[in-house]
Amino acid sequence: MRLLNHFPGQLGRRMYAAPSSAAIPAAKKKYVPTSGTYPQGFKVSGTVVGVKPSNTTKPDLAFITSDRPCAAAAVFTKNKFQAAPVTFSRSLLQQKKNSGLQGVLINSGCANAVTGKGGLEDAEAMATEADKALGAEKGTIVMSTGVIGQRLPIKKILDNVPTAFGKLGASHDHWLTCATAICTTDTFPKLISKSFSLPSSPSVEYRIAGMTKGAGMIHPNMATLLGVVATDAPISPELLPGLLKGAVDKSFNSITIDGDTSTNDTVALLANGAAGGQAIVSERSQDYEAFQEVLASFSTDLAKLIVRDGEGATKFVTIRVTESWSEEGARKIASTIARSPLVKTALYGKDANWGRILCATGYALVTEPGASVNEVAEITPEKTNVSFIPSDGSAELRLLVNGEPEVVDEERAAQILEHEDLEILVRLGTGKEEATYWTCDYSHEYITINGDYRT
Amino acid sequence: MRLLNHFPGQLGRRMYAAPSSAAIPAAKKKYVPTSGTYPQGFKVSGTVVGVKPSNTTKPDLAFITSDRPCAAAAVFTKNKFQAAPVTFSRSLLQQKKNSGLQGVLINSGCANAVTGKGGLEDAEAMATEADKALGAEKGTIVMSTGVIGQRLPIKKILDNVPTAFGKLGASHDHWLTCATAICTTDTFPKLISKSFSLPSSPSVEYRIAGMTKGAGMIHPNMATLLGVVATDAPISPELLPGLLKGAVDKSFNSITIDGDTSTNDTVALLANGAAGGQAIVSERSQDYEAFQEVLASFSTDLAKLIVRDGEGATKFVTIRVTESWSEEGARKIASTIARSPLVKTALYGKDANWGRILCATGYALVTEPGASVNEVAEITPEKTNVSFIPSDGSAELRLLVNGEPEVVDEERAAQILEHEDLEILVRLGTGKEEATYWTCDYSHEYITINGDYRT
């Protein structure tokens, strides 16, 4: 028999369950907000269901609702093995043409992935039960995260939907509990909120709030990564998919923990217009551009929290590749450096090993043997520069200048690497494009967490 | 000042120096031959030079020579930052049209990479000094492996070339010492030899011998991977590059330790014809085909030794992807599974986590966001099968059958995962092509080795 029980974590290990506020590591507490400004018309809750039988205390069912129909869009994983909630929600959004949505119901503890026809029925049943509570018609999308290949304890979940509905509220505590309910191996809930205004309605205060979860299998397209962003700004349904895609490419799709990409990844955006003001109805309006910027920056802040909580991570590393002939080339190089196990272990070892950074740069555009894809562009070794940008605002430390190694002050390098945050800057000297990735290091704890995950 | 000294390894750590026979781990001793049959006309040596000042006892200069001119070919790294010995040797082989070569001189301890014009002069000086000893004219190619960005202690090396020449010999001990001299973080020298015959000269005994070194930065195209293969079969120079490329694609380019690809990788093939018999002069001869097969299988055995010695490795895993619509697709999927940190940590944890294997399969053909490359073909979830093939010859353990999870006997899975060797078989059910990769797991020791490498 497959053993799928997950026993509560031992000391020193991550638990495969949502974190309680007591369990948040001291160093991470600063990333958990103690207050917030949340969009009007939204109510949320987090409920203890016990999706995993071992869980009797942590919220594992999140419900995000709007008191009026929303425009909604979502970006889904590109993994060929798409989980049932992905298939269901994608189809619903298409059918509804991105309008008339009212809720998002999310369980953690079980991914409902590779579960065949039964799994799809479970996903639909969750949505139907939520619709019933909300009095909506085909108004709920669903998400799941957890172990693959296991059916949901669907009765337990459905029985708890009325409870989840009854617990809905708009306070900061409601939002934080809801954000906690979507966590798996995360060590802290990831929640952000902020206010903004739009050019055409300067007196209206709009709000945007979002939650996300990581922590393993994080790599673009996308990851065991769920995200929900809600705003009370009024936006036309047909504009939402483009706005979300643009924001996700530069945020959730620019982070990497381990290069793995999961079956369940979903980021959804809901806009209910409850704050009033002039609606955004055209891509060529100032409001559209302003909101696009707000959403991209907000999504980036949210995505960075996932890297902060990378499994076993001790470092938060920004990889910036500039002066590139193309954005695509810069992205590929940033991504390759961000994924390199040798770079990631050197960072863990606080080792200013620019050779490994250079090495990763050098093979980033090399195709697999036998592949028919050609290299897209050239790197010129004599034009390549690598530097560390310290997080304390002090001067850049040059490691490689125009392809020649610098005599490095190792003491200074060691000081820079003592900080949690670091930027690695690679200037290619061949153009004007750039790209940024965020990543973390590989530690002994990463191996422990992932060697032990199922047992 | 950059600190480039490498102090002798502490207990429990790999030394960044060639292994002495006393230091070879008990479990690896079976991979080190105690005798061999070596190709005629070749003499080799390994000499203690002290390329790294801390090394005073381990051979670190390898010299492989032939008493007559050889046909020679080499496959080099595709990394954009190519080390000086790569640039030098590639150019020499072109200039000599793959003929008239007599020696290969290799140092470990310093990669002579990212060393500019001076580095290129050093590579050339090594070759010239070897030529002088051999009485050859432009007859030596060179290789280097070790830390990047450091100049060679060139005087020390050149001063020792006559010594290396004086120590040349054809015995098994000579070959083993030579194989030891190219090692860096390897825990054992990698040497194989065998005899073979060719259809047109059935009474002639040909021999082939080869050495290689790994252990980190191992991924196709290629790795901090050096290899030299020598045979006494008579082969036309113009046929050698094609023969070698074909063999390397299915051997050295089908292994992965950590997905990193280095600046120095070189595999060279020398054929001196000393055994006599009918020369291979056409691609359309039976002898050509027979030798191609010998070389491919020999190179595969050699390459597998590198995986056996992967940094921190506790497992040797064969990834076979069959029933694919294309070999390219199968390769990409096998490579992606082989590189997945989540698969590699699960193997370390002896966890039959087929979800991660499936997940890697599902994202193998997904392009980076923003990339213009399209997916080459389709995976059909309902046709996908995943099994473990035990190394003890017992029955296959089915994990996923036609996209549906099996009820897995976890006890049996645990038994299978106790063995060092394992085959993961993925049947795609969409065609007839296949590809095989070899990989190892990620352990705590991998992190320790690579977090500490420079310090």
Automatic annotation (TrEMBL), chains A, B:
<dbReference type="InterPro" id="IPR042195">
    <property type="entry name" value="ArgJ_beta_C"/>
</dbReference>
<feature type="binding site">
    <location>
        <position position="213"/>
    </location>
    <ligand>
        <name>substrate</name>
    </ligand>
</feature>
<dbReference type="Pfam" id="PF01960">
    <property type="entry name" value="ArgJ"/>
</dbReference>
<feature type="binding site">
    <location>
        <position position="455"/>
    </location>
    <ligand>
        <name>substrate</name>
    </ligand>
</feature>
<feature type="binding site">
    <location>
        <position position="450"/>
    </location>
    <ligand>
        <name>substrate</name>
    </ligand>
</feature>
<dbReference type="GO" id="GO:0004042">
    <property type="term" value="F:L-glutamate N-acetyltransferase activity"/>
</dbReference>
<keyword id="KW-0028">Amino-acid biosynthesis</keyword>
<keyword id="KW-0055">Arginine biosynthesis</keyword>
<dbReference type="GO" id="GO:0005759">
    <property type="term" value="C:mitochondrial matrix"/>
</dbReference>
<protein>
    <recommendedName>
        <fullName>Arginine biosynthesis bifunctional protein ArgJ, mitochondrial</fullName>
        <ecNumber>2.3.1.35</ecNumber>
        <ecNumber>2.3.1.1</ecNumber>
    </recommendedName>
</protein>
<comment type="subunit">
    <text>Heterodimer of an alpha and a beta chain.</text>
</comment>
<dbReference type="GO" id="GO:0006592">
    <property type="term" value="P:ornithine biosynthetic process"/>
</dbReference>
<feature type="binding site">
    <location>
        <position position="311"/>
    </location>
    <ligand>
        <name>substrate</name>
    </ligand>
</feature>
<comment type="function">
    <text>Catalyzes two activities which are involved in the cyclic version of arginine biosynthesis: the synthesis of acetylglutamate from glutamate and acetyl-CoA, and of ornithine by transacetylation between acetylornithine and glutamate.</text>
</comment>
<feature type="site" description="Involved in the stabilization of negative charge on the oxyanion by the formation of the oxyanion hole">
    <location>
        <position position="146"/>
    </location>
</feature>
<keyword id="KW-0068">Autocatalytic cleavage</keyword>
<dbReference type="GO" id="GO:0006526">
    <property type="term" value="P:L-arginine biosynthetic process"/>
</dbReference>
<feature type="binding site">
    <location>
        <position position="224"/>
    </location>
    <ligand>
        <name>substrate</name>
    </ligand>
</feature>
<comment type="pathway">
    <text>Amino-acid biosynthesis; L-arginine biosynthesis; N(2)-acetyl-L-ornithine from L-glutamate: step 1/4.</text>
</comment>
<keyword id="KW-0511">Multifunctional enzyme</keyword>
<feature type="site" description="Involved in the stabilization of negative charge on the oxyanion by the formation of the oxyanion hole">
    <location>
        <position position="145"/>
    </location>
</feature>
<feature type="active site" description="Nucleophile">
    <location>
        <position position="224"/>
    </location>
</feature>
<feature type="site" description="Cleavage; by autolysis">
    <location>
        <begin position="223"/>
        <end position="224"/>
    </location>
</feature>
<dbReference type="GO" id="GO:0004358">
    <property type="term" value="F:L-glutamate N-acetyltransferase activity, acting on acetyl-L-ornithine as donor"/>
</dbReference>
<keyword id="KW-0808">Transferase</keyword>
<dbReference type="InterPro" id="IPR002813">
    <property type="entry name" value="Arg_biosynth_ArgJ"/>
</dbReference>
<keyword id="KW-0496">Mitochondrion</keyword>
<keyword id="KW-0012">Acyltransferase</keyword>
<comment type="pathway">
    <text>Amino-acid biosynthesis; L-arginine biosynthesis; L-ornithine and N-acetyl-L-glutamate from L-glutamate and N(2)-acetyl-L-ornithine (cyclic): step 1/1.</text>
</comment>
<feature type="binding site">
    <location>
        <position position="184"/>
    </location>
    <ligand>
        <name>substrate</name>
    </ligand>
</feature>
<dbReference type="InterPro" id="IPR016117">
    <property type="entry name" value="ArgJ-like_dom_sf"/>
</dbReference>
<comment type="similarity">
    <text>Belongs to the ArgJ family.</text>
</comment>
